[in-house]
Structure formats: structure tokens, C-alpha cells
Amino acid sequence: MNRYAFVTTIPIRTGALQRGVAIITEHNGNINRVHFDRGIDPHTTFFEVTATPEEYESIRQGLAEIGYLQTSLETFASLKIHIHLPHESGALNEFLTMTTGAGAQITSITFDDAGIHPDRVTISMSVRESGPAEELLDALKSRYPIEVLEFDSTGESLDDTVFYLRFAQNMRTLIDTKDDDFLLRFLGEINHIAQDLTARGEDPKTVFQNVLGAGEYIAATCGEGFYADVQILTLSEEVTLYAIQLPGGGNIYLFRTLDGFEMLDTGYAVYHRDVMQLFAAYGLPVAEGLTRIIISHGDADHCGAGGFFDVPALMHPATREIIRTGNRAWGSRSENLVLEEVYTTMIAHYSRWNPPAEKNIRLIRPGTEEKRSIFPVVCRLAIGDLSFEVLETPGGHQVGELVLYCPEKGYLFTADSLINFASLTEERRRYNSYADYLVTSVNVDSELARAERHALSGLAQEFTEETHRTCTIFGGHGAVSEYQDGRLVVTGTIEHYTHAGGREIPEETA
């Protein structure tokens, strides 16, 4: 028995929903999920059923035969007109016969012979495809006096009678696919998180706005819209660090050593071409000189561009499983939450997910008894002349998340467990809020995440007490900062980079 999902278009009439359910029942399908909300879209109903493959095909065929099964995402045109009908019996019926024959769906109609326009009817309608809409309009013009108030072949101005259709068409642009079958499946998944969040008290349309908002921001910040904030820090005699804060998602940390380059986290794949242009602008031949990638954890904004580099990619075994399963909550108590699984899928599509190839993955094998605070020291690694302890977090933000700590220098790369949120721009804060809203928390276990933040702050404070120097925090997002009296304070110079303007260095340090 398998679980299947499909989208149906059910007419508004008594018994219509029951007719569809009867077909599912007739072929032994067990309904696991159903969602219909007339306030969102008066026609579209989502089903998930458990059935054998043969039973599922019979259900699909039965629904298709009565016109319920939605298998394509046709575009609509919207048309709003004033039409002057003769004041005689049957005039409106004759007009509606024409629109019905053209496949138009009336969305609003206003007429009052006692009003200020006693011979005028105002009608809004939607018509599948712009061509038939134009043909209908020409036919109506040849027969009636008409004033066209609105004609939109894009479907953007349609009302909520085709809400899901418009949403899917927007998604088509954002994830760049012409595959209607894929879009319908994906639409069902997005509807599932809307249903879940609605049950938690959220407005379903706000859920869909957040889904689109995340994708629109990523799309708008690629290519000509790309920008980054860059901090260049000398970490030792042999190591220079380029801390690159991308428009959305996590930071890239590029270490320049005497032997080449090493990279901690990769950013979204969708930014890869832009990042390579940035590297070139800074005179960094990364494509030729990169020797290793270190992955802090399995979120798309930290490992999603790893597949572009044919070099070893060091990661925790849990991170490999997260990549394999496509579920950012793998191994946590949130693993089976639909919000986590669908959000992972959504961001993977938006960001053009391209994680490290299996052949390049090198696993860190936990097993040591040594600890630094609450964190097991799973291994040590050298970057140039710097020695780092690799610490395994308890899994509050994500299972398998790694932290790098250089106790000699007080360099603490904290991934997403400790971040200077105050250093984020308003745009970046807004983008990060989409994830907080859609999965209710970016941490798979908020209690553990609090313990991680407390312990990492404790490590920074301990370093200062022992050495009388400040600990430098390199968060997974935001600016590189120093830990001072319990606060994170931005350190060094932040350069702003755009493709058009190149490096923009603040005047006081230029």
C-alpha cells in the first residue's frame, strides 16, 4: 500500500464532493488527508489516499471520467465588461449561452433596472487561455454594445475563483519548470503546510504569501540583483579569511592559505555563478585552488552549492543522511513534521539544490570521549597554520551540526547555533522570517538550541577570562563579531559588493 496525492476540481453543487469521495471508496482508497477551503478557492480540493498502485490508477481514471481530476495548469484570461442588453425576456439567458459555450466562468454580475444604468449589465468572467477569451470578446462586440473595463491575458487580476491556479503559475516561474504534473504534486505539498499552519491559527493566504515571498526574494537577488557583504580578516601568518554574507541564507567562509583555499559552507546553489564572479573580483582563483569543503550542517544555504566543486567535502554522518533524505529534521524529534519536510523541498527547488556529490563526501566519525563544554570533540583539523577542534552540537538547530573552535586564537565558527542577528540588514531579516513562519522555528529542537547558545557563549567568555582577549564569533549568518561583555559586536571593515559596482569600501577605511 502506497500513499498518493492528487488535486481535484469539484463543481459547486449539492453532492459534488460526495461523488468524488464515492469513487475513491469504490476503489478501496483510504483517505489520509483532504483539504477544501471555499474561502481560498471554491473549486479545488486536495486529497491524499492510501491504496495499491492498481487501485490508485482506477481512482484517477474514475475522477478523470467525471471531469474532477486536475492534470494540467491551464492559464486563464480575465475579462470585465459593461454590456448593454436589450430590455426583453431571455436577453440575459442568450448572452450567458454565448459565454458558457466559450467556456467562460462568470465571477460577478451586476444589473438593476431601477438603478442609474437600467440597461447596463456589469459582468466579470474568467476564460481558459487568452486566445478563446479574445475570440469571445470579438463575438460579443459583434452582437452587443460593449465597454471593456479590463482584459488581462496573464491571469494576474483574477479573483479568488482560481487562487491555486494563479499560485501555481507563480511557482512555475520561481522554480523554472514546465512540468504540470510536478507542479500539481508540489502544489499539494504546499497546501499541506497551509492546512497544518491553519490548524495552528494562521491565515492560509498568509502562508501562501510567505511561500511565494521566499522564492521571490531568492530570485530577485541573483544575477543583476546579487549583492554581498564581505569582511577580510587576517587570522594568522598563513591564513586570510574572506567572510561572505550572501543576500539570503548562510555565509561562506573562504580561507586563503599558502596551499590554496578551503571553504566552510557554500551558500545556496542558485548564487554559485554570482559567488564565482565575486571571487574573481577579489582576485581569488577558487575554481583552480580549492582543496576542501567543510560543511557545518545539512541546510540548503550551507551545503547546497557543494556539488559544483569536485573536492572532498567533510561532514557529519547525519548531514549526509539529511542530504540523502531531503528532510532537514532527519534524526530529530521533529523528523515527521510535514512543515519540516515540505519546507526542505521548497527551499531545495528555489535554491537549485546541488549538494556535494556522494563520491566527494568524507565523514567525520564521532566516538571520542573528549569534550569541550557540552560538545564532544569529534576530531581536529588544520587550516593552514591554525588548529581547530571540531565540536558536535547536541542537535538543537539541526542534527549533526558542527562547530569549529581554535582555542589558541579564540576563533569560534558557530554555524547557526550562535548568530549576531543585530548585524543582519532589514532585507535579510525579512527573508529569514519566512523560515521562522513556515516551520514555526528554524531549530528542530528549541530547548537544545538554547542550551547550545548558552554553552557557546560560555566558551567565548571562558576564553576571555583565561587570555584577556576577546573571542571572535563567526556565525552561520550575519557579520563576524567579537564577544564583548555578553554581547556580539561587529568587528573589522564590512565591504559591500555588487556586480555593477564591484567592491565598495567604506570611505573611512578606503
Question: What's the number of domains?
Answer: 4
CATH fold call of the largest domain: Metallo-beta-lactamase, Chain A
Q: Name the shape in a single word.
A: elongated
CATH homology-level superfamily of the largest domain: Ribonuclease Z/Hydroxyacylglutathione hydrolase-like
Q: What gap, in angstroms, lies between the N and C termini? A: 66 Å
State the name of the first-level CATH class of the largest domain: Alpha Beta
Helical percentage: 25-40%
* Biggest sheet features: 9 strands, mixed
Low-confidence stretches: none
Q: Roughly what is the average pLDDT, rounded to an integer?
A: 92
What is the correct CATH architecture of the largest domain? 4-Layer Sandwich
Number of strands: 24
Quaternary state reads: single chain
- Strand order of the main beta sheet, please? 14-13-12-11-10-9-8-23-24
Rg, rounded, reads 28 Å
Layout of secondary structure:
Blueprint: E1 2-9, H1 16-26, E2 30-35, E3 44-51, H2 53-65, E4 76-84, H3 91-101, E5 104-110, E6 120-128, H4 130-141, E7 146-152, H5 163-175, H6 180-199, H7 204-220, E8 227-234, E9 240-245, E10 252-257, E11 260-264, H8 272-281, H9 286-289, E12 290-294, H10 300-303, E13 313-315, H11 317-325, H12 338-350, E14 361-363, E15 371-372, E16 375-383, E17 386-392, E18 402-406, E19 411-415, H13 426-439, H14 446-467, E20 471-475, E21 481-484, E22 487-490, E23 495-498, E24 502-504
Parallel strand pairs: 11-12, 12-13, 13-14, 19-20
Antiparallel strand pairs: 1-3, 2-3, 4-6, 4-7, 5-6, 8-9, 8-23, 9-10, 10-11, 15-16, 16-17, 17-18, 18-19, 20-21, 21-22, 23-24
Helix pairs in contact: 1-2, 5-7, 6-7, 6-12, 7-13
